[in-house]
Design goal:
Distance between the termini: 30 Å
Number of helices: 5
Number of strands: 10
């Protein structure tokens, strides 16, 4: 069962809309990760030049929250590294996820995890959902490491179980609100069971009197 949207959840919704993800962190361009502004010409292949992890890092930065980001990890395949780091792994320099205040909620296929994730977002907490893309072996025997994906969960009253919660996603196309199933559509093994969710408290939860 999902908890109601609090004042903190309303503030988080306004904050997420204010990041303007649909016009920044655009695929096919090199971007300044903190702002999503383009700082170079098109790179020629949107599917291989997306900025989900840079967007999540920037959203966390704006909320004064640390998540693995440059310079402690380069932008290339940062989503895979963020998911590993959030789960307590990785060998990057800088603080750990636990020391930075992150907690694991579990996987999208676990009972109650998606409800817990939306309830946390409805309180104004930052909730991220990520998928680590395992290496794949090609027919010639070589191994290829593809990028994973990571998104931010939006506050919402309810969601259809077949599609999952609404999230903010920066991919080949960017959406300020799309279903989790749609957002991870380029990763066939992610939905419905293998997306990892993590939560962090924010100052948006606090009502100032």
């Amino acid at each position: 069962m999902i908890g109601p949207i609090s004042d903190g959840g309303d503030r988080l919704r306004v904050f997420l809309d204010g990041t303007h993800v649909e016009t920044r962190w655009i695929a096919d361009y090199h971007v300044i990760w903190q702002t999503g502004q383009r700082n170079g010409p098109p790179e020629g292949d949107p599917a291989h030049h997306t900025h989900c992890s840079a967007y999540v890092a920037a959203a966390a930065l704006y909320l004064d929250i640390y998540i693995l980001r440059p310079p402690n990890h380069k932008q290339l395949r940062l989503a895979n590294a963020q998911v590993t780091w959030l789960g307590g792994g990785g060998d990057e320099t800088g603080p750990t996820a636990a020391a930075s205040g992150w907690s694991a909620l579990g996987a999208s296929g676990d009972d109650g995890v998606l409800d817990a994730a939306v309830t946390a977002a409805n309180l104004g907490k930052l909730v991220v959902a990520g998928y680590f893309q395992p290496p794949t072996q090609q027919s010639d025997g070589t191994t290829v490491q593809r990028a994973g994906h990571i998104v931010v969960v939006r506050p919402q009253d309810s969601f259809p179980s077949d599609d999952g919660p609404q999230v903010v996603t920066a991919g080949v196309k960017n959406f300020k609100s799309a279903s989790m199933r749609f957002a991870f559509g380029d990763h066939p093994l992610a939905w419905p069971s293998n997306i990892q969710l993590f939560v962090h408290d924010t100052a948006l939860e606090v009502t100032l009197i």
